[in-house]
Amino acid sequence: MSLSGAHVLVTELPEPPPPSEELTAMIAKCAPVPLRRPGRELAIALGLFAIWAALLCAALGLRADLPALPLVRYLVGGLAWCAVVGLGVRIALAPAPGQVLPSLSIARLAAAFLPLGAAIAAVLLLVEAPSHAVQLEGPAALAKIVHCLSLGLGTAIVPLGWTVLRSRSRLLVGTAWTGAVLGVGAGALGALVLHVVCPVGGALHLVVGHVGSLVAGALLGAVVASRISRR
Fold first, then answer.
1. Tens digits of residue pLDDT in 160-201
2. What distance in Å separates the CA atoms of residue 227 and residue 221, rounded to the nearest whole number?
3. How many helices (H) and strands (E) would you count in the chain?
4. CB environment 129-168: b (16+ within 10 A), e (fewer)
5. What does pTM read for this prediction?
6. What whole-number distance in Å separates Cα of residue 126 and Cα of residue 210?
7. Per-residue pLDDT averaged across 48-66, rounded?
8. Rounded Cα gap, residues 115 and 150, in angstroms
9. Mind listing the pLDDT tens digit for each residue in 119-149?
10. DSSP-based three-state secondary structure for 14
């Protein structure tokens, strides 16, 4: 068939029929889809994290050596944990400028390096009053490490699960890494609670029992986010 013949066939195609009145009325009733507001969603998530942490601290009570601790170092340590919580949740939930989904490359780096940086900072900012802190050795020290690690991870489970369920539509790309960095933020919340309630001293206890919550939270977040997104 020549090009001129094809041109004739194309020009002879009938005009499409106009939409029906029912379709036009249905379209007119459709409301516009609301735009996502990442800042609002981030604020809701962090608000839930804060309420949960406050409830746990109130239920568990403040650490016995709190009056003897150096106030400035103690507050700086608490603010550092708050920063890790905020970073983890921010990277997991809020997209980069001009993007729709969170950045997978940033999530990978944060999930890998935030726990490492937190461990280094925790040792450098070690906050304890040697004459008032609880010093444990042997099986008792190991048991307390396991206790604190369990408490930190237990603290992380509720906000982590709620946030993953609420945000699973944005966890379809790079699910495991996004869930992992969210788990780091939730684990840091557990470490913040331990910072408030645990009087046990020593760098080993702090790194394994407290900072270990970040690693455990990252692993749990990766698994939970991956499983939920497949449903």
1. 888 887 776 655 555 788 889 999 999 999 999 999 998 887
2. 10
3. 9, 0
4. eeeebbebeeeebeebbeebbebbbebbebbbebbbeebb
5. 0.78
6. 12
7. 91
8. 17
9. 888 888 777 766 666 777 778 889 988 999 9
10. coil
Q: How far is CA 203 from the centre of its chain?
A: 25
Tokens coding 169:
């539509």
List the structure tokens of 6.
């094809």
Q: What are the structure tokens assigned to 206, written together? A: 């702090």
Q: Which two tokens stand for residue 46?
A: 């962090």
CA-CA distance, 22 to 112, in Å (whole number)? 55
The torsion angle over the Cα atoms of residues 200, 202, 207 and 211, rounded to 10 degrees, is 30
Name the one residue in this structure whose structure tokens are 């042997």: 138
Q: Is the pLDDT of residue 2 over 70?
A: no
